[in-house]
Amino acid sequence: MVETRRDGMPGIVILVLGIILFIINILVFITSIIMAEDLWPLIPLTVIAGIIIVGSMIGLFMVDPNEGKVFQLFGAYRGTARQPGLRWTNPFYSKNGISLRVRNFETGRIKVNDRRGNPIEIAAVVVWRVVDTYEAAFEVDDFENYVHIQSEAAVRNLATAYAYDATDDELTLTANTAEVSQQLNTEIQERLEKAGVEVQEARISHLAYAPEIAAAMLRRQQAYAVVDARKTIVEGAVGMVQDALDMLSDRQIMSLEDEHRSTLVSNLLVVLTSENSVQPVVNTAVGPGQS
Fold it and tell me: How confident is the model at residue 40 (pLDDT cuts 50, 70, 90)?
């Protein structure tokens, strides 16, 4: 079953009619006291009129903007009013309000193992609203608590499906935030569909390694960064050495044999890839007895 709209009648009309009838009833009663001696025939009529007026006024209710009033009659669902303002419906209906406003909350920091078995801490922000008041009121026991628990379960399941980070082309929690957020949104929506809830946004708000392995993982990330930096330096140095050799050959500055070429290449690579300043040794080619 889904939500049925039943906004009722404009309440201001019933309110005005009730006030007019109440005033008329009072005037009739007062007039009868003044004009007649025996009032017993008028008392039941006055009481009945008063009960009808009060019963009509009980049917009045107020609907706030972005709110739904769920009607029940002897336990049976009779509809939902969404029209804002003062409304009127059957006085025997019970009326329970459900907010239709957009709401958000942040899940607690959940400690879970990622796809590679590394313990991580993860939390997410979920933006949601009720779109079907019947399902929110009757399909689940407490729809707000249901939203919180199911969202945390979806976050936990997401964390186990992806690695925190990786060196290959697989999707990770840190590098593919858009794809991961979309997957999280879809999974939470599937879980909350039966509660009449629409998930408007779900995004990871906290992501970190667990404290017990955070230091080790930081060293690993630093090692990866050093390796990547070294690789870039070596690739650049090799290119510079190749350019230097080609330039010497093209301009015929010197002719190098294989032995001298390898020595020159080795020296240039040492100079270009060294982290510290290199002090060159100048060979003057002056032998013994020469000046």
Answer: low
Orientation angle between helical segments 143-161 and 177-192, nearest 10 degrees: 140
Task: Return the H-helix or E-strand segment holding 209.
Answer: strand 197-209
Spell out the alpha helix ranges (H) of 59-93. none
- Partners of 122 in beta bridges: 110, 207
Enter the pTM of the model: 0.67
Contact in structure between 200 and 102 (CB atoms under 8 Å): yes
For residues 29-62, one letter each, b for 16 or more C-beta atoms within 10 angstroms of the residue's C-beta and e for the rest, the string is beebeeeeeeeeeeeeeeeebeeebeebbebbbe
Q: In this structure, are residues 124 and 155 in contact, taking their beta carbons and an 8 Å threshold?
A: yes
- Side by side, the strands of the sheet bearing 9-10 are 9-10, 85-88, 60-63
CA neighbours within 13 Å on the CB side: how many for 15?
A: 10
pLDDT in tens, 59-80: 889 999 999 999 999 989 999 9
Burial class of residue 222 (count of CB atoms within 10 Å of its CB; 0-12, 13-18, 19+): exposed
How many angstroms separate the CA atoms of 248 and 17, rounded? 106
